[in-house]
Amino acid sequence: MTVPKLEPGQWWRKPFSMYQTNLREIDANMNVDDVADHIKEYGAAAWLFGVGGIQAQYPTDLPFQMRNPYLSERKSGDLVGDALAAAHSRGLRLLARMDFSKVAPQVAAEHPEWCYMSPNGDLQEHTAGLVSVCPSGGYYQERMFDIIDEICTRYALDGFFFNWMSMNEFDYYKKVHGPCHCSNCQARWLDFSGGLELPKSAHDPTYPQWLVFSAQIIDDVIGRVRGFINDRLPDAGLVLGETADIMFHEANNAVGRELWHHATSQWVSASLSFRPEVPVLVNSTVFMDMPYRMASEEPAHFAQYLLQCISRGGNPSTYTMGVPDRIPYPCLPIGAKITQFHRKWLNIYDGLRPIANTGLVRPTRSQMHATQYDEAIKEFRGLYTAMQEVHVLFDVLPQEHLRGMDENGGLERYSTIVLPDLGKLLPKDATLLDSWVEHGGHLIATGSSGVGDGGLVQLRSFPAERRRAAVTKRELMWSSYIAPPQTSGDPHIYNGPVVPLYGSYFLFDWKKGTQSKYNMLARAPFAPPEKAYGNVQVDHPGAAIGTHGEGKAVVIPWTVGRGYRELGLRAIRDFFLLVLSEEMGAKKDIEVNIAEQVEATVNKNGSKTVIHLLNMSGARTTNFGDHLPIPAGSIKVAGKNVTAHALLADRPLEVVNGEIKLPALDLFEVVVIEGL
């Protein structure tokens, strides 16, 4: 079979979009030409296609790979070869979806040393008797390379994606099995930890170290795979993790999981803030969850995956089951519209880079215990929501890569960085943040951020020296507030705003010269109503401000983000934003004025400033529904001689004295500004 060749080179360095057909056994008889036509019309440039691993879609010679029994019904007997010819003849890239997470039962019986083993000594079994394997075992470490070698020898593929390359802590039924305790893992852990106990669950004290340990195993395998493929197919990109060519994120919903409405935007931003030169792919799921693969996601929800992806500079991908049109997925039309929009404006997305000068740090699970992480995530999401609603333009900074951003110069772009109740920091992170503040940065830390062992404050730049106490019981927080200095001579008359304290409050020893913003109205009786009085203002700040070198550090000694997320009171949000606006290290060159239900992001492409406006008015508890039209707004910019163009409407926008007049907003719009 003659397969047309596409233009050589690292094609993924340019913006692209992808379409995945997750193959079932019964799809072996698919008409690859019809599918390739569908994908091209959809607007995608690449096709992610099941090739091998658990089940081979080609005539494999290797005994530890199952061959799809339905291939015998195909004339060629080779679905991969047929798909490659169909894709390349239409200018589509074909990427191989591989899955090495499970093996056939007979393979597991012959090689039990390859298998995942739970802390209780159990294997992890699935439908059709498949058994999970462990990345530290011989299947991943050796036999996987035999399969990849066979595929690279047979087919000039354009890329590879490895599904479920993880330590198999949980299965398809969402059952949590815990860290693997196979003999390979136990030996590796002993060397890594120096004799610490191998954790059995996420609540064990050594679990954060195990996350680092397991990530190193995965990253090592991915790095070896990348080099292995590059030696055989240098023009094939690897889609996966930190050491791959293309960073990967799957955007999906899940039964029983709390929805974070900004999850896709957050993830893409964190990846590109760290390494803007490494492309990011977001594979967006058209079905609602694994147990319901034939149930379509809500179209409005699916649209958010793709829009949040491109708004941060990611590459959009659509993830379907089987052959198009065999399963009805009503979200595909809106997916095609957004994918085609992305293809139309590739010149705008080619070279797009984040330029916000405010950064919100995203907590990482490997640097804190389970309870602290849960609290930090609540704080992060509350602060994210607060800034999004008033259109503070910000990037998400991954906590685990702060040192990497410092080393590659990425932190220099930010004038303000926010730490959301992160607790104890790595010593090197504390040192680099001190240096960043000393050179002019403005740091805002909430809750217990930067507090080490014994309550000692880790950062020299902080206005605090030591944490004396932590008030974490909700009953001890009730009927406590912060407010501006009280001016009435009557202790029972208050001037506001009166902001309720919620979550946790931390008492510090403050350095001399520390300034405060608002102070506590101390706890008083709140019931019965006849006794609900007596809140007296005391010298415990709502926020404490100090200088360090050329910069500033602000400590908000309570969980203001969690308070806003769980109570939703504007007074809480406005207090944080008051601190942020007054203490930010740079003036606002861009000011977006539009309804708070719109998420705004900012990027740069050469001389072009690119602002995405996403209508999120359809947000519901578990998904997104239909959006409402948003009244016209404006964008004020520092430059007076600017021009602006709306990409979706494809027309110039009126600019009056540096104010860009926006049209009414439907689902989304992208504004390109020149002359700023």
Describe this structure in words.
The protein has 676 residues and is of the alpha/beta class. It folds into three domains: 11-102 and 124-172 and 219-350, Alpha-Beta Barrel (TIM Barrel), CATH 3.20.20.80; 358-583, 3-Layer(aba) Sandwich (Rossmann fold), CATH 3.40.50; 590-674, Immunoglobulin-like (Sandwich). 28% of the residues lie in helices and 26% in strands. The chain has 16 helices and 35 strands. The strands form eight sheets. The protein has a nine-stranded mixed sheet with strand order 17-16-18-19-26-25-24-21-22, with helices on both faces. Strand 10 (246-251), helix 7 (263-274) and strand 11 (280-285) form a beta-alpha-beta unit. The protein is globular and about 90 Å long.
Which CATH-level-2 architecture of the largest domain?
Alpha-Beta Barrel
- Structural category: alpha/beta
Per the CATH scheme, the topology name of the largest domain is TIM Barrel
Measured by DSSP, the beta-strand proportion falls in 25-35%
User: How far apart, in Å, are the first and last alpha carbons?
Assistant: 54 Å
User: Stretches where pLDDT falls below 50 for ≥5 residues?
Assistant: none
